[in-house]
Amino acid sequence: GPAAPHPGVSTPVDVLRRLGRAIQGMDELAVEKISDDSREDPFQVLIATMLSAQTRDAVTHAASTRLFRVARTPASMAKLTEARLRRLIYPVSFYRVKAHHVRQACRAIVDRFGGRVPATMEALLTLPGVGRKTANLVLILSHASRDNICVDTHVHRIANRLGWVHTRTPDQTEHALYTVVPRRLWPAVNLRLVTWGQNICRPVYPRCPVCAVNDLCPKIGVTKMGR
Hints:
The chain is mainly α and 227 residues long. It has helices at residues 12-22, 30-37, 42-52, 57-70, 74-78, 82-89, 95-113, 121-124, 132-141, 153-161, 170-180, 186-199. The chain is globular and about 55 Å long. The chain starts with 11 loop residues before the first helix and ends in a 28-residue tail after the last helix.
């Protein structure tokens, strides 16, 4: 028969529009959930995001909730001992390192920023344990920034799979996406691609046959598909 037309005309606009519809009804991401529950409190978004690295959403949500029951402000959290913090956030991945960073970051917020989470990338990156991913999420969810794209492993993987970017690290992906995604869609990128990455476009055995953008995707680097 005739060769199938080569896919890979995946413009970010088409893909993001379809994914926006397709993720309705999928579980909300842990950090987004905490952001909604706390009315976008930047402190809660910051801490939840710090706890979320390489940790399943359910674990992040439970740990964040336990921690915020005990301490809801940078000042009160900075007073907790590291041992207490470790007990509260266990079993998130790297809970020892994270407990240390959370305490140091809270002290920095109190000492240097008057107890309020700073609202610029430059200032956020001075906090212990805070990288660009965390800073971007805080800016997007809490400060309603329209100027940031938050890139984690899912966004990095999927943007390369779709052929939007050809990059080796999440930081490179973030900077490349600013040039290929229309600015009005920047705030949507993380929520839509991460939800898709957790449910459909998985690292190994992505579920291409049931994917809403199957026909648009060149599937770069995909060797095996799941059902």
